[in-house]
Amino acid sequence: xxxxxxxxxxxxxxxxxxxxxxxxxxxxxxxxxxxxxxxxxxxxxxxxxxxxxxxxxxxxxxxxxxxxxxxxxxxxxxxxxxxxxxxxxxxxxxxxxxxxxxxxxxxxxxxxxxxxxxxxxxxxxxxxxxxxxxxxxxxxxxxxxxxxxxxxxxxxxxxxxxxxxxxxxxxxxxxxx
Length: 177
Description:
Oligomer: single chain
Structural class: mainly alpha
Number of helices: 6
Radius of gyration: 18 Å
Strand content: under 5%
Distance between the termini: 62 Å
Helix content: over 70%
Shape: elongated
Order of helices and strands: HHHHHH
């Protein structure tokens, strides 16, 4: 049991560092972003990474204090659990008239890489976890990080090439084809 708790504490310490880096990056990206939807996405991600930090800290402090895994982390819920769906709906309403500043697209690319790194990290830890509540926590984190990834990737594609986004996401067909 102590060994499992030690591994969980190690995982949570790394998770906390990743979530804090993410929150700080999204805060800075939101301040610099020229695109309104990009600003909104970065601000939302900053808040959601803050929720992740609260969850991780709560679990970490409990385990460090000798407690076992609990479901108390569930009290920290996301305001917009389907960020990727929200982004797609907003892009659909904006139409193919995006203006993507180079810095915005680069920040989105960095965010995509960070989220993929978080997904990989949590997936690797899911394979090693045995406690059912720990597995539930990690599974939830993976789903939320995947939503972040999809939102960032969609917005990046849209700002790089709006027509391509609409062709890919809206499944439009070519006339005469």
